[in-house]
Amino acid sequence: MIHPVILSGGSGTRLWPLSRALYPKQLLALTGAQTLLQETALRLKGIDGAAGPLVVCNHEHRFLIAEQLLEAGVEPAGIVLEPVGRNTAPAVAVAALRAVTTDREAVLLVLPADHLIRDLASFEAAVVVGARAAEAGRLVTFGIRPLRAETGYGYIEQGVGLKGVEGAFEVARFIEKPSSAVAEELVASGRHHWNSGIFVFRADVFL
User: In Å, how far are 24, 63, 78, 132, 192 from 29, measured between CA atoms?
Assistant: First the structure.
C-alpha cells in the first residue's frame, strides 16, 4: 500500500509578508480557491490504493492544518508535530517508523505541501512507475523538466534506464544550485531535471 506523507513544516519566510511564520505559504490559497496544502491532499485521491495522508508539521500549525483538511474532506492517517524543524530526512524517518508498525512493506510517497501540479494524469502515472521501482527496493526521486536555467534549484542528471521498470532511470548524479553558466549547460543537455523534492520508497529500505 502507498502511504502518502505530506511535509508541511515550512516556516513562511520565502513569501513574506504574504506568507508568515504563523501562516506559511502552504496554508494560503495562492493558485485558486483551495490552499496549497488542500490541493496536495486532494491530489492523492487519484492514486489507487493510497492510504490517508500522514502530515508532518510545525506544532504551531496543527489546528490550521486539521481545519483545512476537514474543509477539503480529507481524513488524514495522522498529524505528526515537530517541536523544532529539522528538514526533510528526520521528518521522513518519523513517518517511516510509524508506517512499518502497521505495514511492513509500506511504500511512502513523500510530498512537499506547497507544490503546484496542474497535470494530474502525468503525476499519477509517475507515482505508479515510482512505486514499482520502490517495491523493488529503489529510492525514487521525481525530476521536473526545466523551463529555464534556474540557479536556485538542485538538478538531477538522468542516467540509464532502470531494468524492469519502464519510465524509471538511474540517477547519474545530483548537482546542487549551479552557477548561471552551469545551469545553462544542464538545461541544454536535455539530461538534467529540477529536483522536485517528491520521493517514493519502501519505509524499511529508507530506515
Answer: 11, 17, 23, 33, 31
pLDDT, averaged across the chain: 91
For residues 122 and 46, is the Cβ–Cβ distance under 8 A? no
Decide: 116 and 39 in contact? Cβ < 8 Å.
Answer: yes
pLDDT at 30: 83
Question: Residues 6 or more apart from 126 whose CB is under 8 A from it?
Answer: 142, 167
Q: What is the pLDDT of residues 133-173, one digit of tens each?
A: 999 999 999 999 999 999 999 999 999 999 999 999 999 99
Q: Which residue pairs, CB below 8 angstroms and at least 24 apart, start in 65-73?
A: 65/8, 65/27, 65/37, 68/27, 68/35, 68/37, 68/38, 69/37, 69/38, 69/41, 71/38, 72/34, 72/38, 72/41, 72/42
**Strand pairing report for 2-8 and 140-144:** unpaired
pTM for this entry: 0.91
